[in-house]
Design brief:
Blueprint: H1 6-15, H2 18-22, E1 29-31, E2 34-37, E3 49-52, E4 57-60, E5 66-67, H3 69-77, H4 81-91, H5 109-129, H6 131-140, H7 145-150, E6 154-156, H8 162-169, H9 174-179, E7 183-185, E8 193-195, E9 200-206, E10 212-218, E11 229-231, H10 247-250, E12 258-261, H11 264-272, E13 278-280, H12 288-295, E14 300-303, H13 309-325, E15 328-333, H14 340-343, H15 350-353, E16 356-358, H16 360-368, H17 377-392, H18 397-411, H19 415-428, H20 438-444, H21 451-456, H22 459-469, H23 474-477, H24 490-503, H25 519-530, H26 538-570, H27 581-598
Parallel strand pairs: 12-13, 12-14, 14-15
Antiparallel strand pairs: 1-2, 2-3, 3-4, 4-5, 6-9, 7-8, 9-10, 10-11, 15-16
């Protein structure tokens, strides 16, 4: 791959807003001079992810990840460094300048994004050319043409090879076309490829940055043995279990509880009815990853699934995951055989007010124990084990107790007895409830290091911090530091790498395209940069670190000299010691030389 010019990278970095990029994945709230939110890299319930606007860095305490806007995209999107730069350049309208004259033509995720954008435009054009599909959209589905344009609805003609030829003419590699998921292999067709979605209404699926990453294709006429929907297979840019349809739309409405529905057309119907906070799970297979993504944006959810058995099963799955992730979910019950699309065709969001809504406990009761208070003791026991397992997954003790109180009221049981039974269930399952105080969690993720952390620091760490925070000191420090001083500690080895880069005049700060540093080393470098530098006099501090490293090294050498002398005496007969007088004289000279060095450690000259 061709390298991007450093000046171009700096230009993009100066314009790219880390807060803007990170807030696409997680809701961020002001915390002093920082922004704080749930980690976008892992599932958690207590915020440990910080964006530091002044430093233009992020730090995630739950994973240890840290870095700049390029590294954020590398970690979150699995981009290479160059792909991150190219993607940000496109977002902010900056031309990418390469070191060589030839642009980067290698396979990349950006090429897959481009293929999907071209395919979406092609499907959209075919929609506009087909009176049949427009009739279906307007008369059968009861949507307007404006809605189709707004959300990129398209049409994939049957037995069509024009899209393949179009993409090949654009110069996309065969490997990229195969990985896109748009085509199927078939030896009866040229290049062994044929369109996966032939003869279907095409609904583009977007990621949080409005990039087309896949499609959902729906048949327009019922046919036996033909699936109603076909979705894009998983690809390097599309992971079905981690994608929520409409997240790019709904994330602009995080000030209200979100609504989760089953299908894309349900979500579109909600938006057209003024319910912009709706997202779709893309079918009944709701995943824990999807609910964790929702948790990053909202703590309250309304589940609006279809009124059939599959929809109710999906709603129960949402309830189960809501207990686990800490989302407060209500479930709206729809009439048998009805869905949100049908419900809202001739109405607006006020229709939601007339729906019956129940809590997670009540819905679980109605679904898993429809007989309620009239159920037998055995039936209640079986149900309680199921609901206990859900309640146990909540990590807040107060919340668990409230759930149990509600459960006791619905079943007409003694609350204390129910709580005792719950504790026995947890003990028997070897999963006792945890009670981690929220305040202690907050303390664990503070940006400012505590004294206990300060004790772990050493001269190598402090000198590395000075080099990173004060770039002008690096060239002065590098020639003064002996490599042997730094070989025995993690931060010493990392400092040695940085100083070697400085001496070679190749140091440009931590960045992922530098193969010298591993991923863990980059995390450490960015973490140090994310920590405030409170040094009043950097030169004095640097000299103190250099002196400490020098003295520690000299003392180690003195210790070795003394050890060598004692070993010589121990294993040599007394009458033979005089034969080794030259050996001991050399050791004595070495000790004098080392003691002299103790008072003449190198230092930066002001």
């Amino acid at each position: 791959m061709a390298m991007i010019k450093r000046e171009c990278i700096e230009r993009i970095k100066a314009v790219a807003d880390l807060y803007d990029i990170a807030s696409s994945y997680v809701q961020l709230k002001r915390s002093g001079s920082h922004w704080k939110g749930l980690s976008p890299f892992t599932a958690e319930k207590t915020p440990s992810f910080f964006v530091l606007p002044e430093k233009r860095f992020f730090k995630c305490f739950s994973t240890g990840y840290a870095g700049d806007v390029f590294r954020f995209l590398e970690l979150k999107e699995n981009f290479s460094f160059i792909e991150s730069v190219e993607w940000l350049a496109k977002r902010y309208g900056i031309a990418v300048e390469y070191e060589s004259n030839a642009p980067n033509k290698g396979y990349s995720k950006n090429e897959l994004f481009a293929i999907h954008e071209s395919a979406a435009a092609y499907f959209r054009q075919k929609f506009l050319e087909s009176s049949q599909i427009q009739y279906y959209w307007q008369k059968v589905r009861q949507f307007s043409l404006e809605t189709a344009e707004r959300y990129g609805i398209g049409w994939a003609p049957p037995a069509d090879r024009a899209l393949l030829r179009l993409l090949q003419n654009h110069g996309y590699a065969q490997e990229s076309l195969e990985q896109s998921g748009l085509f199927l292999f078939n030896e009866n067709y040229g290049n062994n490829l044929r369109l996966r979605f032939a003869g279907r209404l095409m609904i583009p699926i977007f990621d949080v940055h409005d990039r087309t990453i896949g499609f959902s294709g729906r048949i327009i006429e019922k046919k036996e043995r033909v699936a109603k929907y076909i979705n894009s297979p998983e690809s390097p840019i599309f992971y079905k279990g981690s994608v929520l349809y409409g997240l790019n739309h709904a994330r602009k409405f995080v000030d209200r509880p979100w609504i989760i529905v089953e299908g894309q057309l349900d979500a579109i119907r909600c938006w057209e009815s003024g319910i912009h906070e709706a997202i779709a799970s893309q079918g009944t297979g709701v995943t824990e990853a999807q609910i964790h993504i929702l948790r990053r944006y909202t703590s309250k959810l309304l589940c609006l699934m279809d009124g059939d058995s599959a929809g109710q099963k999906c709603a129960l799955r949402v309830v189960e995951l809501s207990f686990k992730t800490g989302i407060e979910t209500q479930i709206a019950t729809l009439p048998e055989g009805k869905d949100p699309d049908f419900l809202l065709q001739n109405g607006d969001r006020t229709i939601l007010d007339g729906l019956r809504k129940v809590s997670m406990i009540q819905f679980s009761l109605e679904t898993l124990l429809p007989q309620g208070k009239k159920a037998t003791a055995i039936e209640k026991e079986i149900f309680l084990k199921k609901i206990y397992a859900m309640i146990r997954s909540s990590d807040a003790e107060v919340t668990r107790m409230l759930y149990l109180n509600e459960l006791a009221e619905h079943l007409n049981l003694d609350a204390l007895a129910l709580k005792h039974d719950f504790q026995n269930f947890c003990s028997a399952a070897k999963f006792p409830p945890t009670t981690l105080n929220a305040q202690s969690k907050e303390k664990a993720i503070e940006i400012t290091p505590k004294k206990s952390v300060e004790k772990l620091r050493n001269a190598a760490y402090d000198l590395l911090s000075l080099v990173l925070h004060h770039s002008d000191l690096g060239p002065q420090i590098a020639p003064l530091v002996d490599n042997a001083w730094l070989m025995e500690s993690k931060h010493g080895c990392l400092l040695l790498k940085v100083l070697n880069e400085i001496q070679k005049n190749t140091w440009e700060g931590p960045q992922s395209q530098n193969p010298t540093f591993s991923a863990s080393e980059l995390n450490e470098l960015f973490s140090i940069l994310a920590t405030d530098d409170a040094v009043e006099d950097p030169i004095d501090a640097a000299n103190a670190c250099i002196q400490a490293l020098c003295i520690a090294s000299i003392k180690d050498k003195l210790k070795n000299v003394n050890l060598e002398a004692s070993q010589k005496i121990k294993f040599t007969e007394n009458e033979n010691l005089l034969d080794d007088i030259d050996f001991f004289r050399k050791l004595q000279d070495e000790k004098l030389r080392l003691r002299q060095l103790l008072i003449s450690c190198p230092k930066i000259k002001v």
